[in-house]
Give the backbone structure.
Amino acid sequence: MIGDEWTDDLPWIGQYILDDDGNPVPAKSLLAWGEWFETHRHEKIVAQDQIGIAFVSTVFLGLDHGAGFLVRTGQLDPLTYKPVLWETMVFGGPYKDYQTRYTSKKEALEGHKKIVQMLTS
């Protein structure tokens, strides 16, 4: 960011958006990424459940929370690396602040269900 304006010549830092089919694709620029996040708020939510005082939320993060920087530096194989783009977090209750991350939406949904089961058992 230069001043109060976004600039497209900032480096790519692992930001992703979802295509029309819900698949993650690298954002073409920081501006495109920010605009997508501003206009697609509901697409980021994968699942949410309230169980007693605990709230379980699974979302698309939009930023690679894995070792993507190692791919960019040549320390990991870009053909086998999967970005970590989804997260489940628990707010309140016995598992307060529990969090786990995933490399696919399918894994995220399965993980969300497991956490909900933990809270309802």
Q: What stands out?
A: The longest helix spans residues 105-120. Residues 1-6 have pLDDT under 50 and may be disordered.
